[in-house]
Design brief:
Elements: E1 14-22, H1 26-33, H2 36-42, E2 49-52, E3 61-67, E4 70-76, E5 80-82, E6 86-93, E7 98-109, E8 115-125, H3 131-157, E9 170-171, H4 175-181, H5 188-203, H6 206-209, H7 214-221, H8 225-234, E10 241-248, E11 255-259, E12 268-271, E13 276-279, E14 286-292, E15 297-298, E16 315-321, E17 324-330, E18 336-342, E19 346-352, E20 359-365, E21 368-370, E22 373-376, E23 381-387, E24 392-398, H9 408-412, H10 415-420, E25 432-445, H11 447-454, H12 456-476, E26 479-485, E27 488-493, H13 496-508, H14 510-516, E28 524-539, E29 542-546, H15 548-559, E30 564-568, E31 579-587, E32 594-602, H16 605-615
Parallel strand pairs: 19-22, 20-23, 28-30
Antiparallel strand pairs: 1-8, 2-3, 3-4, 4-6, 5-6, 5-16, 6-7, 7-8, 9-15, 10-11, 10-14, 12-13, 16-24, 17-23, 18-19, 18-24, 20-21, 25-27, 25-28, 26-27, 28-29, 30-32, 31-32
Helix pairs in contact: 1-3, 5-8, 7-8, 11-12, 12-13
Length: 616
């Protein structure tokens, strides 16, 4: 890679600048100008072909694209930026008329309100003959950029969406309409969301649908998350969307790799941009995303920018650390948890609190940072002293993760996914840890005598009817049936309260079930619930759960008697009108020490009325 030219014979850089006075605040404009991928699409720029590179310089990719129809190739260094004020980038061409391109964007709040928006382009021509061409190209680009920023500023003033809109979507008919007509979500809310989804897929700009995150879309539309997820999942077999899995880098939080099926997951991920290898132990390391099927809507596969600030909205600031030196960063004004990351994996956790010091210091030596824990005052100064064997980017990141990802846990708990995506299985031997999940086991008492008295066929009809009875209640309360084992049911829920209320409903309504299914007379439910982290595995051709939490839930069901629910003390219990709750302790096989438990039983009809009256 080449540095900026120097020496008497080098042509002077061609510097072009455009300054705009905008009515909007800097933070609002930042979301427009820092969304460089979207902006480049709207500016009519060509997509980028990326080749990962390793070297002593900061660039991580060699980029190939076209400018005014001509093929160009360059190394692009990571952006340097401070949210929401400034960002800059450097591109080093490998050949052609220019040796270096630098672009700087600055947003400066004005005392009277509004923002001064400035873009400066510096082009270093290799020869003097290239200078006029560079000036013309820069002026043309700045004119287009100015028009888009002014339009966005006007929309912000009118309280409209400031999103920069690029070329119209390319909808491929009749494939799109045919797929849309076959979209059949399971739930009524899902059907309403499906109508909105089809309309959006027809009209939304390419950047919005290139990677669809159902929860983020639901939040933006103000719709129920489960309904939008249901609609998106239904769009896959309809031929409108395709489902993929992204391996998410824990630092930049972008997709380091994408696979179409769970069975294609590697054992770990690697982010080239951050030079960071990571395991899949964290639930956040794997996200389900969707995009339109190519036969229904054409979208360019390649990116239009690789490092703009809005690509990583959790990153507050980024700098390139050269071989040796010192730099100062102004810390965010908002208290909270942050962290410093240097390419290669170096971490230092930072707490911003009012009682912290006004200035702090951290040392960066290659891929290491010290100290690894820091405290400072919001708005204070961070001094970074660094000595590197190669250039690396340093990031200041917010530690909090936005809760907008559809995870493996979410889909493993979704009935539509379990029924309609049977090929989405982990490879044999692979297990992925997921977060806290409420696990419920049920069984029947008296079923052995029933088989003896009625015979296998008649008894099975009753057992099968009871499976339908339980599945309806489990799914109504947001759970899934993982599997049935003989007369038993293993179910899972995303929330403790949903599992407990489901179990209570099943116990409360059992007398009605017995009245409708006479063979169930003398047969009763018993249930156990435990909540905790668990592992997703593939067993017997379906997604299953494994681990100590599963074992405990199964053991608790064994402690329950007829018409009883036993719940571990770890489970958050809702108020249950019409039920007795008796705390007790018991030892459970495979678990050291005694567990705190609750035995929950329905009240008799004569007991329920006074309790209900007293609760009013």
């Amino acid at each position: 890679m080449q540095p900026a030219p120097s020496g008497a014979r080098a042509p002077a850089p061609v510097i072009s600048r455009r300054v705009l006075t905008c009515a909007s605040e800097a933070a609002a404009l930042w979301d427009v100008v820092a969304d460089t991928d979207r902006l480049n699409r709207a500016l009519g720029m060509a997509p980028l072909e990326l080749e990962p590179v390793n070297g002593p310089g900061p660039a991580r990719y060699r980029v190939r694209t076209r400018v005014v129809g001509l093929a160009v190739e360059y190394y692009e260094e990571p952006f340097e930026f401070d949210e929401p004020r400034r960002f800059a980038l450097r591109r080093i061409p490998t050949s052609g008329p220019y040796s270096l391109l630098e672009v700087r964007t600055q947003l400066t709040p004005l005392d009277a309100g509004g923002t001064r928006a400035e873009m400066e382009i510096a082009v270093y021509p290799r020869t003097r003959l290239a200078a006029p061409v560079a000036a013309l190209q820069a002026r043309t680009f700045l004119a287009r950029w100015s028009r888009l920023v002014r339009e966005a500023d006007g929309r912000l003033v009118r309280r409209e969406s400031p999103v920069v809109v690029g070329p119209p979507p390319v909808i491929l008919e009749p494939a799109f309409s045919r797929a849309a007509s076959q979209l059949e979500p399971v739930t009524p809310k899902g059907r309403d969301a499906a109508e909105a989804l089809v309309k959006w897929l027809r009209s939304a700009p390419d950047p919005d649908v290139l990677k669809i995150r159902p929860y983020a879309v639901a939040d933006e539309w103000g719709l129920d998350r489960a309904a939008v997820l249901d609609a998106c999942l239904a769009a896959v077999p309809a031929g409108l969307l395709e489902l993929n899995w992204e391996l998410v880098c824990p630092s930049c939080r972008t997709g380091a790799d994408t696979v179409a099926t769970l069975s294609a997951l590697p054992g770990s991920g690697h982010c080239h941009l951050c030079d960071l290898s990571f395991g899949l132990e964290s639930e956040q390391a794997l996200e389900a995303v969707l995009r339109p099927v190519k036969a229904a809507r054409a979208i360019p596969e390649m990116p239009f920018c690789i490092g703009g600030p809005r690509r990583t909205p959790h990153v507050v600031a980024q700098r390139i650390l050269s071989r040796e030196g010192t730099l100062d960063l102004t810390l965010p004004a908002v208290p909270g948890r942050y962290r410093l990351f240097v390419r290669g994996g170096g971490l230092s956790h930072l707490e911003l609190a009012a009682d912290g010091p006004a200035s702090i210091e951290v040392h960066a030596h290659d891929a290491e940072l010290s100290p690894t824990r820091l405290t400072a005052r919001p708005g204070g100064t961070l001094t970074v002293r660094f000595r590197q064997t190669e250039d690396r980017q340093l990031k200041l990141e917010r530690s909090e993760w936005a809760n907008a990802a559809v995870t493996l846990r979410d889909l493993s708990l979704h009935p539509t996914f379990r029924r309609g995506f049977g090929l989405q299985l982990l490879r044999q031997g692979q297990s992925l840890k997921i977060g806290r999940t409420a696990l419920m086991f049920t069984d029947l008492t008296g079923s052995t005598a029933l088989y003896a008295a009625m015979g296998d066929a008649a008894a099975f009809d009753m057992v099968d009817a009871h499976f339908v009875y339980l599945r309806e209640r489990i799914e109504r309360h947001g759970g899934v049936v993982v599997k049935t084992i003989g007369d038993a049911v293993f179910a899972a829920f995303g929330a403790d309260e949903d599992a407990v209320v489901c179990a209570a409903d099943a116990l409360r309504d059992w007398e009605q079930f017995q009245a409708e299914v006479p063979a169930a007379k003398g047969v009763f439910l018993k249930l156990g619930i435990h909540s905790g982290p668990t592992y997703v595995i593939t067993a017997n051709g379906q997604l299953d759960y494994f681990g100590q939490s599963v074992n405990i839930a199964a053991r608790l069901q064994g402690l329950a008697g007829a018409n009883e629910l036993v719940v571990s003390g770890d489970v958050a219990l809702p108020d249950l009108v019409g039920f007795h709750r008796q705390p007790f302790t018991a030892e459970v096989k495979g678990v050291p020490g005694a567990l705190s438990l609750h035995r929950i039983t329905p009240m008799k009809t004569s007991e329920v009325a006074p309790v209900a009256a007293g609760s009013r």
